[in-house]
């Protein structure tokens, strides 16, 4: 592609008459004209997410980016400037806030989520009318599958299942963008970016770690929601993850081009994650320069680098001048990003984009508030109910409503902001909702049940100065009283009774009671105690008393300028600085106050749960799924004081509430984030709405030891309901209703249900639900399959069961039987067969189950599928090492880059000639933990004839440390030629790796 020389500043044309602005032309033709008109300097300036104006072409400054996880994030603090000192956000654009995505997914209502996405898309368009510099390319939804409940960003995702996530996140995409793939081919309301591609489910060390993912898990699980959201919903953008997969950092992964574009058909652009360019070089050390980082990203198919625009331009310029990229690479990236911009209507002279007419005031409308309430209502999950709920409504006919209600707990009257949420005008707490529904005739007592304490540092009390900063005084009468909350895992917060605000560590080292809630990239409102008894701020620096009596963080380093990109550390002073020993004097015991309130009440609502930025958020995983001990103690005290206690759990992830499940009569779950959370909770407690949400994740409970969070092996780790075979606290899909329902199959065709996989049949399953109660309620029908047992000596492992379809039937009346038809496409049944290196739908007789959860099956039938039987692994062909049947203690790493000076060297690929026969994503298997061997099992061969040998390959034709081949219990040592003789009749074998062994492929000759 030719490019023009640099233009002089006075070369300006009448741009609106150019093909770029002519909507009658195909988008591709307009883009190609633009690429011909841009100079090389123009092009190099347009590779970052924030781009400058090019006046002669009518191109204004524009920013690709902005969050929209559960509403438009328009707080104006994501650039690191932060909120005001008191935590307020005076410049925020107030937008409608829905429940966290994990809560939206709990609705199991795809049609509702499409409406929710449309709400967010409309508000993004309205804000663009106010400030037309960006905000139309939104980084949502997060479709990373939540195979580990300790992930710090669990609230952002849609659960652990690819079918559910694909359906729910895909619906949100359709709403955001204005329709499906065909509807949005030429016009987008908003561009939705799926994140984070891929195998991104650990925060701790995410910028330096690599996820080891075998071929089956990769294809069948981790990549599946991206495929579904691109092919079925038409997602127009993808964001790559910080982490590496099998040793290749994701912004350099060839699968961006080959899989997202080649197989999935992405029509749009790909962006890196924020600051990833610098992190790849500075933190990970994968490249020699930023120029090399940018070059590899462009070669892999990343179109837009989200980082400092000046630095991106400099790096891209260097890469171009050094020949690491050519004009074709640059044009390809701009072709994709400008295609999206044209679909958004940024260069429409006649404003033909139908979504451009959204008025600037179409934000937080009455319609949007009603929809937010419906989404929140449908997201509530009734985990347990022994008949306590619903409470009788005040003034209801019959029965006696409660006259005294105690709303008790740290979440009773608190609403917490989250990092990727917007700032709504409404912040309905649980206490707000109960007060509103109870009315003036009911006594509603509210208490946070927190201890009231005095703080002493080296024997002196903490008091507040006129500026709300902490000072040390000798007189207890001058001491400030604080409400202490222990969030578990050592995280403490303190709220001043004088100011009603949280203590926070300021950037000058002082500590002040000025924040309205814990919030920020660095949550400076959290403190913890170290082993020496010192109180430490969020960055592990101890608190001390200076010579003037000020209580400060030890040290003196300014914090304000230290947020660069996506930081991994944030220092103030030094963690070894000497602090003042903390003593806490308890003035009032919160559980004692709570117990008295509970005993005097007719009913108790225990409001407990999480703050979305404490003990788990972006850049911080949860240490465990444990319930905070202080909250557990509170619930025990409340139940002992009053058995009529309903627990409301505000949580965005599974929590180990085993004791509570056994002893508390009713438990209602809500995600955080919704502006009307408290109102919806109160409606559900009192029966104004009937909760019918379902869990999108398995709650394993305290009795299950979870695998290492860095272990991405789904089958070997027994991950999710598909592969876990033991008891759990709450199964995937669990959720109760106020009405008992029966589930049954409808009228079936003669001969039962049959389908042909080769014909890509869709199985139509008639189902029915009947309401046998006296309450109108929604009902969710979940359909699962159990796979046929395949014959053979070494069958492919199959899941315990797998979700293949679901439907939420709304407002089923008492006595009503509602019929529906579930559509189950063949792709929901397919597996990735590593033995043939491709997908197949297993042939045979399936069990099709329907019910209320994966653990509550109400009806089963047989389903005959004409699919594909297993085939033996091939002989004489190289098998990529990641196409194992099972692996243990194995790390997959990238094959080294070949050392040559050509531009092609920017693509990681094996140096050994054997890899000409392997896929582009071939990798090396090595031992993960050096204190024990690693194993790789390969099965599914025809019984071996005499004379068969196993041959191994590596990146440099040398294997390294010795490898043993194991057949059954017999270990076989390699012959002098490096091959392993196989006993006659062998159908499977295991490679045992030790030390520095490196294997990229296996072949049986």
State the share of residues found in helices, binned by percent: 10-25%
- Low-confidence regions: 5-11, 559-576, 898-913
Strands ordered across the widest β-sheet: 10-27-26-25-11-12
CATH architecture of the largest domain: Alpha-Beta Barrel
For the biggest sheet, the summary is:
6 strands, mixed
Looking at this structure, what is the CATH superfamily of the largest domain? Glycoside hydrolase, family 3, N-terminal domain
CATH class division of the largest domain: Alpha Beta
The helix-and-strand class reads: alpha+beta
> Any idea of the CATH topology of the largest domain?
TIM Barrel
Rough shape? globular
How far the N terminus sits from the C terminus, by CA atoms, comes to 47 Å
* Domain count: 5
Number of strands: 48
So how many helices? 19
- Rg measurement, Å: 30 Å
Strand content: 15-25%
How confident overall, as mean pLDDT? 92
Region (Disordered): 1-21, 72-102
Domain Fibronectin type III-like: 779-854
Keywords: Hydrolase, Signal
GO molecular function: alpha-L-arabinofuranosidase activity; xylan 1,4-beta-xylosidase activity
């Amino acid at each position: 592609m030719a490019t023009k020389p640099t233009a002089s500043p006075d070369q300006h044309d009448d741009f609106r008459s150019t093909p770029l602005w002519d909507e009658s032309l195909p988008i591709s033709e307009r883009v190609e004209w633009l690429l011909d008109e841009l100079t090389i300097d123009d092009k190099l300036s347009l590779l970052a997410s924030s781009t400058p104006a090019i006046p002669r072409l009518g191109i204004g400054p524009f920013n690709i980016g902005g969050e929209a996880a559960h509403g438009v994030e328009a707080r104006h603090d994501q650039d690191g400037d932060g909120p005001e000192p008191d935590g307020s956000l005076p410049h925020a654009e107030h937008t409608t806030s829905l429940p966290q995505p994990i809560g939206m997914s709990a609705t199991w209502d795809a049609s509702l989520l499409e409406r929710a996405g449309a709400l967010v898309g409309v508000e993004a368009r309205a804000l663009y009318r106010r400030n037309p510099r960006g905000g139309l390319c939104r980084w949502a939804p997060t479709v990373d599958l939540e195979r580990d409940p300790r992930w710090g960003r669990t609230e952002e995702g849609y659960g652990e299942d690819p079918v559910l996530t694909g359906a729910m996140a895909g619906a949100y995409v359709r709403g955001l963008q204005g329709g499906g793939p065909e509807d949005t081919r030429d016009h987008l309301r908003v561009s939705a970016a799926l994140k984070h591609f891929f195998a991104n489910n650990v925060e701790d060390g995410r910028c330096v770690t690599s996820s080891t993912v075998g071929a089956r898990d990769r294809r069948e699980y981790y990549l599946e929601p991206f495929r579904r959201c691109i092919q079925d919903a038409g997602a127009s953008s993808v964001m790559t993850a910080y982490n590496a997969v099998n040793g290749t950092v994701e912004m350099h992964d060839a699968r961006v081009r080959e899989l997202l574009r080649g197989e999935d058909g992405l029509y749009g652009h790909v962006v890196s994650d924020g600051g990833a360019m610098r992190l790849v070089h500075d933190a990970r050390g994968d490249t020699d320069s930023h120029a090399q980082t940018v070059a590899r990203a462009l070669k892999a198919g990343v179109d837009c680098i989200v980082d400092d625009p000046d630095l991106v331009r400099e790096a891209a310029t260097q890469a171009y001048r050094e020949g690491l990229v050519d004009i074709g690479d640059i044009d390809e990236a701009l072709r994709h990003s400008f295609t999206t911009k044209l679909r958004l209507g940024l260069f429409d002279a006649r404003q033909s984009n139908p979504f451009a007419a959204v008025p600037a005031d179409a934000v937080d409308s009455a319609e949007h508030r009603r929809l937010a309430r419906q989404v929140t209502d449908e997201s509530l999950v009734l985990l347990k109910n022994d008949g306590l709920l619903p409470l009788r409504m005040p003034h209801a006919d019959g029965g006696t409503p409660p006259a005294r209600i105690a709303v008790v707990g740290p979440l009773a009257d608190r609403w917490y902001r989250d990092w990727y949420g917007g700032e709504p005008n409404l912040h309905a707490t649980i206490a707000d909702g109960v007060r509103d529904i109870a009315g003036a005739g009911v006594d509603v007592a509210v208490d946070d049940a927190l201890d009231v304490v005095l703080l002493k540092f080296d024997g002196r009390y903490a008091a507040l100065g006129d500026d709300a900063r902490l000072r040390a005084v000798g007189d207890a009468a001058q001491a400030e009283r604080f409400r202490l909350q222990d969030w578990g895992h050592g995280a403490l917060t303190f709220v001043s009774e004088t100011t009603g605000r949280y203590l926070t560590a300021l950037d000058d080292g002082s500590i002040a009671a000025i924040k309205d809630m814990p919030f920020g990239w660095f949550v400076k409102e959290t403190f913890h105690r170290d082993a020496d008894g010192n109180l430490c701020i969020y960055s592990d620096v101890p608190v001390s008393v200076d010579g003037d009596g000020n209580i400060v963080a030890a040290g003196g380093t300014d914090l304000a300028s230290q947020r660069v990109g996506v930081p991994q550390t944030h220092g103030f002073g030094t963690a070894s600085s000497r602090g003042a020993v903390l003593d806490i004097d308890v003035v009032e015991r919160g559980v004692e106050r709570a117990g008295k309130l509970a005993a005097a009440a007719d009913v108790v609502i225990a409001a407990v749960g999480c703050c979305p930025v404490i003990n788990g958020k972006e850049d911080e995983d949860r240490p465990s799924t444990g319930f905070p001990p202080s909250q557990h103690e509170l619930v025990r005290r409340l139940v002992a004081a009053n058995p009529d206690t309903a627990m409301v759990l505000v949580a965005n992830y599974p929590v180990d509430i085993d004791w509570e499940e056994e002893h508390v009569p009713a438990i209602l779950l809500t995600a955080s984030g919704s502006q009307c959370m408290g109102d919806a909770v109160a409606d559900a407690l009192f029966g104004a709405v009937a909760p019918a949400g379902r869990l999108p994740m398995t709650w394993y409970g305290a009795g299950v030891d979870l695998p290492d969070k860095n272990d991405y092996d789904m089958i070997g780790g027994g991950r999710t309901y598909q592969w876990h075979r033991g008891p759990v606290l709450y199964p995937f899909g669990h959720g109760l209703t106020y009405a008992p329902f029966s589930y049954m199959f409808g009228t079936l065709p003669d001969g039962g249900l049959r389908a042909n996989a080769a014909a890509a049949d869709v199985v139509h399953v008639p189902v029915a639900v009947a309401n046998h109660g006296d309450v109108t309620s929604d009902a969710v029908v979940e359909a699962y399959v159990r796979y046929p047992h395949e014959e053979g000596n070494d069958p492919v492992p199959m899941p315990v069961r797998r979700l293949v379809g679901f439907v939420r039937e709304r407002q089923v009346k008492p006595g009503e039987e509602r019929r529906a038809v579930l559509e189950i496409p063949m792709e929901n049944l397919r597996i990735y067969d590593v033995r043939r290196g491709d997908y197949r739908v297993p042939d045979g007789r399936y069990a099709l189950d329907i019910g209320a959860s994966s653990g509550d099956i109400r009806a089963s039938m047989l389903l005959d599928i004409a699919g594909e039987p297993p085939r033996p692994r091939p002989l004489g062909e190289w098998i990529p090492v990641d196409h194992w049947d099972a692996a243990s203690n194995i790390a997959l790493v990238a094959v080294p880059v070949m050392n040559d000076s050509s531009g092609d060297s920017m693509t990681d690929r094996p140096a050994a000639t054997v890899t000409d026969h392997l896929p582009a994503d071939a990798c090396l298997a090595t031992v993960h933990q050096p204190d024990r061997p690693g194993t790789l099992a390969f099965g599914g061969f025809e019984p071996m004839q005499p004379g068969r040998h196993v041959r191994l390959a590596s990146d440099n034709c040398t294997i390294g440390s010795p490898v043993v081949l194991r057949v059954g219990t017999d270990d076989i040592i390699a012959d002098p030629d490096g091959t392993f003789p196989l006993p006659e009749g062998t159908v499977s074998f295991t490679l045992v790796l030790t030390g520095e062994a490196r294997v990229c492929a296996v072949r049986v000759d």
